[in-house]
């Protein structure tokens, strides 16, 4: 009906609901799967995002028709971090909240909800779910679910893991082969099914019909964002334990061709015990002083340390996460012997190392307002700078961001200043834009903005057990699982100069807004004494704006304008939907159902309005003003010129 009528904006939410139902269904008829597949192919003729989502779901449905139960199996394996060689991908959901922006009651409610969601997580139970769902999806009503479940419960864990691996291999082989035969796949699973039941029980138990298999909650962890580098630390801790299971053969091949010291010498943390030395050596042996040669003995360690010590330097104590032993644990086998220093064999060319696969996906869910997103932009910039110095996370990790707006009814007075935005609409501009782009996001995610604070203040249940209605966790899981189309946001860099020449310029970034306001620290009378009065009396200061104009031809055209203003606001999000350019912007990536970018800034000062992607603002009167980034008073800079 949505396809025939003028209700195209309902197609994607309905398609998400259909696919989620098909994944959880015990068995799908071939006729229903064929109709859904044909509908997804029709979406290929529509513009984005319909064609991209239709293509993604068409590929999934084709695989599900060949090997029933593939989508459910992959989702459980990745979310529960079950070890499987045919499908080694693993995922984890990180929920980040700023304790200065949310009340203690909301944080406690979120902690309770996430802890209750992890109660049902049991590797053995999850492996049984995968086996039962695969058998039922392939064999249909001919599968004895009660007998199969009883047989799996009586087995030891090692046997359950064995049959789990057998089922995973069978399903993955059928799903990855282009010319796979569904009948052969069904015969292979039926053989495993009879082996699990046993010869005595096969065929004796009555058929109980189709039964639903639970879909376990994903692996979710809740974090209060209290440290600037906390995001990076959590991602490293997520990667390291899983990467310890690498095969030692890969390491031995690398050691045959390379010296291990060459590999670790590029890391900054490997030089934590070294001191910088200014070398005056010419490289000629005869130029060495005689005293140095005579004093060099095995026992002269104190002399050598004093000679190599840099005076006046500050030795930075590295974090344990920065150590080479920690980061390189991802390439070493836990049971392997420590590697020795190996020299490169002469005459043997260096073999290029195999590219790493991104087997891990970190889904970052942010609960808060635009101020939290600004903090995320800072953390993302810091992470990218860290990766340019030493690459560790980038080749191993897929990083995705999800946003759920949460605003308390009465904001914390200490978190808002006079020049910062105080209304809920201004604090949730990103959520409002995502709601316009996706009707499902508007009706399901934006409503949590007021619902989560209400749930946190509700009286607790008289039952001593954990809550059973995990509404917030279910919505987050559905949002994370079905959000397949990214929305890209531009991260803008800012360089701020201060009135004091001795103070170093500050570099920062912002995601949604930059707001300036004139300071009253310098009176007008003091200004007239030090500088000749060149302007008329009036509020505000004279600003010189140099910007690069955005034109269709993409040619650089710099313009200069002057204006007098008491404040200036830069907006990265267009005021209305017509101003959004349908193009991909390089930057952070969030999840949604449309693909939008913001390649330019919208600056508004009084009646002047312009669009640019590079701008320089300076006070000609040398009067300072205040700069606030992303409406966050913690990121306000004073005495800026």
Question: How would you describe this protein?
Answer:
The chain has 22 helices and 16 strands. The protein is an alpha+beta fold. It has 2 domains: 8-238 and 358-410 and 425-460 and 467-482, no CATH class; 492-522 and 536-579 and 591-640. Helix 18 packs across helix 19 (439-445). The longest helix is centred in the first third of the chain and has 20 residues, at 157-176. Mean pLDDT is 75; it is low at 245-276, 292-301, 332-341, 411-421, 529-536 and 577-600.
In DSSP terms, counting alpha (H) and pi (I) runs of 4 or more, how many helices? Answer: 22
Q: Percentage of helical residues?
A: 25-40%
- Kindly report how far apart the N and C termini lie: 59 Å
List low-confidence stretches.
245-276, 292-301, 332-341, 411-421, 529-536, 577-600
Write out the strand line-up for the largest beta sheet, numbering strands in chain order.
10-9-14-13-11-8-15-16
Which outline best applies?
Answer: elongated
How is this structure best summarized?
By secondary structure, this protein is an alpha+beta fold. It has helices at 11-24, 30-42, 50-66, 70-80, 104-117, 123-139, 145-154, 157-176, 182-197, 230-243, 248-257, 260-264, 290-295, 301-308, 324-327, 370-389, 424-427, 429-437, 439-445, 448-457, 471-482, 524-530, and strands at 90-97, 220-224, 360-368, 397-405, 485-490, 492-496, 506-510, 513-518, 541-549, 558-565, 567-571, 587-592, 601-605, 608-619, 625-629, 636-640. It contains 22 helices and 16 strands.
């Amino acid at each position: 009906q949505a396809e025939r009528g003028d209700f195209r904006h309902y197609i994607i939410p309905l398609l998400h609901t259909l696919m989620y139902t098909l994944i959880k269904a015990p068995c799908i008829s071939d006729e229903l799967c064929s109709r859904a597949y044909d509908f997804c192919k029709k979406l290929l003729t529509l513009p984005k995002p319909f064609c991209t989502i239709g293509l993604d779901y068409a590929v999934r449905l084709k695989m599900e028709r060949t090997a029933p139960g593939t989508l459910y199996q992959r989702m459980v394996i990745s979310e529960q971090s079950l070890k499987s060689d045919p499908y080694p991908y693993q995922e984890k959901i990180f929920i980040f909240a700023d304790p200065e922006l949310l009340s203690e009651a909301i944080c406690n409610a979120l902690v309770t909800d996430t802890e209750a969601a992890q109660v049902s997580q049991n590797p053995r139970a999850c492996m049984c779910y995968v086996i039962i769902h695969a058998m039922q999806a392939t064999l249909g009503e001919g599968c004895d679910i009660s007998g199969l479940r009883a047989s799996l419960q009586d087995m030891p864990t090692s046997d359950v893991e064995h049959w789990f691996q057998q089922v995973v291999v069978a399903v993955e082989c059928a799903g990855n082969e282009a010319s796979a035969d569904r009948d052969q796949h069904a015969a292979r699973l039926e053989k495993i099914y009879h082996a699990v039941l046993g010869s005595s029980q096969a065929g004796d138990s009555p058929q109980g019909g189709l039964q639903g298999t639970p879909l376990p909650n994903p692996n979710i962890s809740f974090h209060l964002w209290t440290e600037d580098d906390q995001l990076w630390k959590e991602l490293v801790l997520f990667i390291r334990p899983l990467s310890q299971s690498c095969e030692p053969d890969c390491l031995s091949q690398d050691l045959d061709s390379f010296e291990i010291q060459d590999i670790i010498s590029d890391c900054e943390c490997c030089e934590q015990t070294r001191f910088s030395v200014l070398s005056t050596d010419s490289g000629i042996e005869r130029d060495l002083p005689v005293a140095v040669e005579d004093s060099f003995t095995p026992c002269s360690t104190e002399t050598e340390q004093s000679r190599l010590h840099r005076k006046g330097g500050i030795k930075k104590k590295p974090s344990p996460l920065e150590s080479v032993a920690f980061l390189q644990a991802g390439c070493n086998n836990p049971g392997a012997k420590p590697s020795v220093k190996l020299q490169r064999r002469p005459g043997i060319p260096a073999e290029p190392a195999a590219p790493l696969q991104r087997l891990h996906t970190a889904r970052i869910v942010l609960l808060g307002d635009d101020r939290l997103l600004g903090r995320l932009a800072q953390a993302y910039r810091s992470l990218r700078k860290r990766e340019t110095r030493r690459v560790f996370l980038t080749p191993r990790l897929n990083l995705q961001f999800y946003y759920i707006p949460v605003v308390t009814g009465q904001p914390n007075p200490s978190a808002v200043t006079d020049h910062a935005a105080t209304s809920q609409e201004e604090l949730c501009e990103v959520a409002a834009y995502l709601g316009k782009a996706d009707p499902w996001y508007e009706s399901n995610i934006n409503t949590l903005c007021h619902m989560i604070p209400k749930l946190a203040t509700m009286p607790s249940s008289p039952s001593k057990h954990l809550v059973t209605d995990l509404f917030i966790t279910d919505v987050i899981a559905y949002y994370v699982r079905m959000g397949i189309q990214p929305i890209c946001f531009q991260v803008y860099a800012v360089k701020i100069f201060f009135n004091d020449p001795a103070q170093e310029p500050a570099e920062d970034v912002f995601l949604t807004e930059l707001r300036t306001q004139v300071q009253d620290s310098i009176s007008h009378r003091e200004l007239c004494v030090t500088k000749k009065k060149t302007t008329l009396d009036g509020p505000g200061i004279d600003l010189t704006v140099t910007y690069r104009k955005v034109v269709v031809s993409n040619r650089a055209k710099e313009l200069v304008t002057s204006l007098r203003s008491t404040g200036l606001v830069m907006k990265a999000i267009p005021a209305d939907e017509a101003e959004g350019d349908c193009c991909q912007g390089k930057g952070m990536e969030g999840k949604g159902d449309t693909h939008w970018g913001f390649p330019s800034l919208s600056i508004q000062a009084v009646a002047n309005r312009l669009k640019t992607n590079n701008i320089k603002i300076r006070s000609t009167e040398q009067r300072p003003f205040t700069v606030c980034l992303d409406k966050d008073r913690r990121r306000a800079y004073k005495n800026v010129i």
